[in-house]
UniProtKB/TrEMBL annotation:
<feature type="transmembrane region" description="Helical">
    <location>
        <begin position="12"/>
        <end position="36"/>
    </location>
</feature>
<keyword id="KW-0029">Amino-acid transport</keyword>
<feature type="transmembrane region" description="Helical">
    <location>
        <begin position="96"/>
        <end position="115"/>
    </location>
</feature>
<dbReference type="InterPro" id="IPR052157">
    <property type="entry name" value="BCAA_transport_permease"/>
</dbReference>
<dbReference type="GO" id="GO:0005886">
    <property type="term" value="C:plasma membrane"/>
</dbReference>
<comment type="similarity">
    <text>Belongs to the binding-protein-dependent transport system permease family. LivHM subfamily.</text>
</comment>
<keyword id="KW-0472">Membrane</keyword>
<dbReference type="GO" id="GO:0022857">
    <property type="term" value="F:transmembrane transporter activity"/>
</dbReference>
<protein>
    <recommendedName>
        <fullName>Branched-chain amino acid ABC transporter permease</fullName>
    </recommendedName>
</protein>
<feature type="transmembrane region" description="Helical">
    <location>
        <begin position="225"/>
        <end position="256"/>
    </location>
</feature>
<keyword id="KW-1003">Cell membrane</keyword>
<dbReference type="GO" id="GO:0006865">
    <property type="term" value="P:amino acid transport"/>
</dbReference>
<keyword id="KW-0812">Transmembrane</keyword>
<feature type="transmembrane region" description="Helical">
    <location>
        <begin position="148"/>
        <end position="165"/>
    </location>
</feature>
<dbReference type="Pfam" id="PF02653">
    <property type="entry name" value="BPD_transp_2"/>
</dbReference>
<keyword id="KW-0813">Transport</keyword>
<dbReference type="InterPro" id="IPR001851">
    <property type="entry name" value="ABC_transp_permease"/>
</dbReference>
Length: 275
């Protein structure tokens, strides 16, 4: 029983790290801009499709495609901000909420139009479906290499973003804008640029998560819905605007989902996250 339970905990932590990166991007956008980006999961879907088509059409593995998709998602974030978000950033929060909800619907329907509702999955990648064996507390446990790389990559991206915000001048400007936009503007900070940067970084984060998921998860237009819902719960647990809080919240969500499916009804494990 203990060996199986440890396996369940490992699985929960691996998924939790991925959920955390999605939540970190969502939390960053909320913390700086005060906008709850309900289209967040749909950008994850675009990141997954971007990695999928790079691998399918050009033969670029997702781990290498990460170097292409990440800046592409950042640039997409810039474009979305300039064309839509800048018009609602000062609007009432309900207006922004409805706008991002509508954006998500548009992106999902665009994906349906371009790629149909088919379920896709990459079959041949650099990491494949390899599994490593580890010994924990005298037992034998198995770790999926694609999931491990996705978890490590997610934690690395989260750590890099945290370092950027806490240790760089631009990051401190982001913090100042999040605390008080008017005061930051009086100090000479271009708050409009900070908003644009925060939104683009948030989209890049969820794009990275999408690419990392492509190695082992199914790809379809609605794939992002579950992830954005889990991210909302994670951010609620950790505190809106807190990166380390989103990290902790994501790990908790992963453990709840995994352990809940182990001790309860597996088919209802995702429901337990919202209980």
């Amino acid at each position: 029983m203990s060996e199986l339970f440890i396996q369940v905990v490992i699985e929960g932590l691996l998924w939790g790290a991925i959920y955390a990166l999605v939540a970190v991007g969502l939390s960053l956008i909320w913390g700086v801009m005060g906008i709850l980006n309900l289209a967040h999961g749909d950008f994850l879907m675009l990141g997954m499709f971007g990695a999928y088509w790079l691998a399918t059409l050009i033969g670029i593995d997702p781990l290498i495609g990460l170097l292409i998709v990440t800046p592409a998602m950042f640039i997409l974030g810039l474009g979305i901000y300039k064309s839509l978000i800048t018009r609602i950033v000062k609007a009432p929060r309900l207006t922004a909420l409805l706008a991002t909800f509508g954006l998500g619907i548009f992106l999902r329907n665009l994906a349906h139009f371009l790629w149909r509702a088919d379920y896709r999955m990459l079959g041949d990648t650099l990491v494949g479906d390899r599994v490593i064996t580890v010994s924990i507390l005298g037992g034998t446990n198995f770790i999926s290499v694609p999931k491990l790389l996705a978890a490590v990559g997610s934690l690395a991206a989260t750590a890099l973003l945290y370092w950027f915000i806490k240790r760089t001048r631009t990051g401190r400007a982001l913090q100042a804008t999040a605390m008080n936009r008017q005061a930051a503007a009086l100090m000479g900070i271009d708050t409009e640029r900070m908003y644009m940067l925060a939104y683009s970084l948030g989209i890049a984060c969820v794009g990275i998560a999408g690419v990392l998921l492509t190695n082992f998860f199914i790809i379809f237009p609605e794939v992002g819905i579950m992830f954005v819902l889990f991210a909302l719960v994670a951010v609620t647990i950790g505190g809106f605007g807190s990166i380390h809080g989103a990290l902790i919240g994501g790990l908790i969500i992963g453990l709840i989902e995994s352990i809940g499916g182990f001790v309860g009804i597996p088919a209802l494990k995702q429901v337990l996250v919202f209980a």
